[in-house]
Specification:
Blueprint lengths: L1 H25 L5 H87 L1
Length: 119
């Protein structure tokens, strides 16, 4: 049985290489001019893409170095201003609440006075 398997393996290998050679004959190979044109096009596209990536890399690196520090400064400044505004807003709200309470008491007194005068 081992001999039958070897013979079958040899036939399969021979058929594979015959088929492989037949397929390569069917391939339409590019002319040397087409090969040069396609190669130049691929190299040009690769160089343009590399240039774009290089410029973007430099831009983002520069923004990261300088921009992050500025953003931190702006955020810390805004936090300080926000804290100050919150304190002043709370003070203003307290003042408004006190004024509002006094106004409503004055309105009630005025209403009572009007009722007394009507009677």
């Amino acid at each position: 049985m081992a001999k039958n398997e070897n013979k079958n393996d040899n036939k399969v290998k021979k058929n594979f290489f015959k088929d492989f050679k037949a397929e390569l004959k069917r391939v339409i190979w590019p002319t040397p001019k087409q090969l040069v044109n396609n190669t130049v096009a691929v190299i040009a596209i690769v160089l343009v893409t590399a240039a774009i990536v290089f410029v973007l890399d430099l831009t983002f690196e520069t923004l990261n170095k300088h921009g992050v520090n500025k953003i931190k400064e702006v955020v810390s400044a805004n936090n300080t201003v926000t804290a100050d505004n919150t304190t002043s807003n709370q003070t203003t709200e307290n003042t408004n609440n006190e004024t509002s309470t006094e106004d409503s008491q004055n309105t009630e007194n005025t209403d009572n006075n009007v009722e007394e005068n009507v009677q």
